[in-house]
Amino acid sequence: MDPSTELFERIGLSVALGLLIGLQREATGAEFAGLRSVALVTLFGTLSGLLAGHFGGWVIVAGLFAITTLLVLGNVMQWRGRVADVDPAISTEIALLTMYGLGAYIAFGSFVIAVVIAGVVVALLHFRQELHSLVGHLAAGDLRAIMQFVLITFVVLPVLPDRTFGPLDVFNPFEVWLMVTLIVGISVAGYLLYKVFGGNAGVLLGGALGGAVSSTATTLAYARQAREGLAAGLAAVAVTLASGVTFVRVALEVGVVAPRLLPAVALPLGIMLALTLGGVGLAWLRVRQKGGRPPLQQNPAELGPAVTMAALYALVLVLLAAAKTYLGSDALYVVSVVAGLSDVDAIALSIARLANAGVVAEDAAWRLVLVGVLSNTVFKVLLAGSIGGRALLVRVLALAAPAFAAGVALVLLLPASGAQ
């Protein structure tokens, strides 16, 4: 690329990102950081970065000192003018300093990373009330569990050995715990959304958010409500929707662990999700009303369940490897059925891990994942019926049957691609 063209692109990106953050600040009534100010600060950072390439890094430091001085003077003038009305929050000042640093980075760095950083900044600024609301919804136990998630991810994970052990050469402590952090991370994200919206959630939102945390726990909770008097149609909608969220969750897990396998898995899961949502939508039109309590969810970042998840994942991984080695590839389907009954995350991640390592062919891998999902669906239908009664069983079965039948048909009838 021509150097002058690249230079203009960097300057243009700097101004565009500055205008984006400035637009957000001016729209929310920031005192001294509006559309032009933030854009100019970002552009000044880019200019400092360009000059630093010729004169040394001290130029960036000097620019940072200049911006900081201006911010201090601006705040001092506000304090002197109207002490009682000054907002003690410093998010605008931090945003300006961040945009200066981003501007300096744009002078020589990656455009993609710059856009991501700007996106994070604008999201943090714009969703201020939602973030504060989230903190207000978290109890002391929730904060403790989130700190445990930090322990799981950033303390335990780095110290685990990153090599395989055992006769089948598949047990890697680092990879096992990495899969646990992935599962817990997805669940924590759903749990935080649940804490914000769950208190006022209707059946649809309760089922969707509950499924993001634990579809099995959500099924159990709404089945109990059905037994206590909640209309079976409403409970069936929530239970089936929670199962539909599982399809998205599995696709996300496979996409992270084995991106090449994702297209093969996404097609059948997408068909099943569409059929599930269609049935839920029609059922909701018939029982359209709010009712029922959102199910109580346990925080998924607790250390005990994480250790259990690690053990289960490792066990499934070893069983799959042993079945393939000693019993042949067909035995993998038996393991998928059995493992899927208890935890669909473990079987999905195990298959994705083996497929990514080349142990299981891609064409067999997506079928094995789908078999685990189908097995888990059967388990949740039976769980709903055993707890919620015959009326709930009939309605959940009617809503889940089209997606289940489609999944079985895809596993049995879709021709092999020949992928090895």
Automatic annotation (TrEMBL):
Positions of the MgtC/SapB/SrpB/YhiD N-terminal domain: 12-133
Stretches that traverse the bilayer: 53-73, 94-125, 145-162, 174-194, 200-223, 230-252, 264-285, 306-327, 333-352, 364-387, 393-414
Presence of keyword Hydrolase: no
InterPro entries per the UniProt record, alphabetical: DUF4010 (IPR025105), MgtC_SapB_SrpB_YhiD_N (IPR049177)
Keywords assigned: Membrane, Transmembrane, Transmembrane helix
Record domain DUF4010: where: 182-388
PANTHER family: DUF4010 DOMAIN-CONTAINING PROTEIN (PTHR39084:SF1), MEMBRANE PROTEIN-RELATED (PTHR39084)
Protein name: Uncharacterized membrane protein (DUF4010 family)
Organism this protein belongs to: Plasticicumulans lactativorans
